[in-house]
Design brief:
globular, Nuclear Transport Factor 2, Chain: A, 457 residues, 8-stranded antiparallel β-sheet, binds zinc ion, 30% strand
Amino acid sequence: MEALRHFPRTHLILAATLVATLAVVLIASARHPDPNATLLITSAPVLDPFAGAALELKPLAELTSALPDEADSGSEIGLSVQDIETSKPQVRKVTETVRSGDSLARIFSRQSLSPRTLHELMTNTPEAKRLKRIYPGHELHFVIDEDNQLQQLTYAFSRLEKLVIEANADGFKAKEIKREPETVLTFRKGEIRSSLFLAGQAADLDQSTILRFAQIFQWDIDFIRDIRTGDTFSLLYEEQYLDGEFIGVGRILAATFTNRGREHRAVRYDAEDGSSGYFTPEGRSVRRAFLRAPLEFTRVSSRFNPRRLHPIHNRAAPHRGIDYAAPTGTPVWAAGDGRVRTASRTEANGNYIVLQHGEQFQTKYLHLSRIARGIRPGAQVSQGQVIGYVGATGWATGPHLHYEFLVNGVHRDPATVSLPNADPVADSEMSRFLARSAPLLAMLDSEEQLYQLAARQ
Ligand SMILES: [Zn+2]
């Protein structure tokens, strides 16, 4: 049908004439023409092609519409396949590789597609929003018809996801096509000789998986200072394959780290509300409610010291926080989930923020060059969210973050205060958690035993 709509009229007439001619030839070669065939001859005055075309137009349209898109060459009625094929609209298929600094508008204009088409496409299909972020090197596949109208646009975001936009009578319609990779559970085990990174490499783990593994245990283990030769680790994670080819690492489902003889275990849990995290086999979060330091710093320039004497005046001038030296502009994160209590400026503090975490805890961030957008009293923040940037505003001699940690209104040393764990698995989800985590931990244990058996032989 699609092809018919674009049939130029002259082609139809020629085709109709051809049918009539063929019919005549067929009938003429038949020894015993049947009466119907004779009728056809008389109704198609082949000597006058234009008259014949006019007569035959309607039946031909019916015949053609009954044909499948790729016309069947064995067609009994003698309709010329060649004619249908050549009269199909000429479409061009173009692949555009996104260049650096490219925009969709630029690419459309390179293909001489009108800005109106782009506008229609973006407003018609909410899915097209994803096209606002296109990356250099990625490919856009266009199908454009002979009138230079866009028929189809395909963009593969990744090997697993693509967006297909097609023109229809109402404008454009988009669909997202997702492929599910095949997942293979994989076990790896390693032993530390010098660093976690090298041991991870020796155990066939890629850099990002090693990093993700370290992040799970970051709250309990400092992978620079705490690790010792002979520490061991194991993990159960997903490897993803597409058409038999390895495409990447999925989730780490369970992991152990034995540090100086003490074993830490963590299992991933995807909660009913869609959140996910790592928990001990009993359901306690392995994460702390607070980051130890709320930024990436170069060094501690002044420690917590409640009995410090002022260097010049020789009187008590307690240092109630830690000074972390870092370049101006270094992002400062919320140490924990909470609410902004103050985001303001004073002569001494410069730009500063106070966060309230539940009833008990407060954290303070001083001398910021700038407070992040949206950080105003009452705003909710989550752990790790950027709230401001390191600076030297207020009484500060160089760029640093002065960070304070208060428990029930009392200043504590942020470097040593014991940090509460993040929320455990909710009571209401405990049976679901146990049902999911137990098989993973059992698998980790049995793999470990197999590994040790093999090592002994
Ligand atoms: Zn300070």
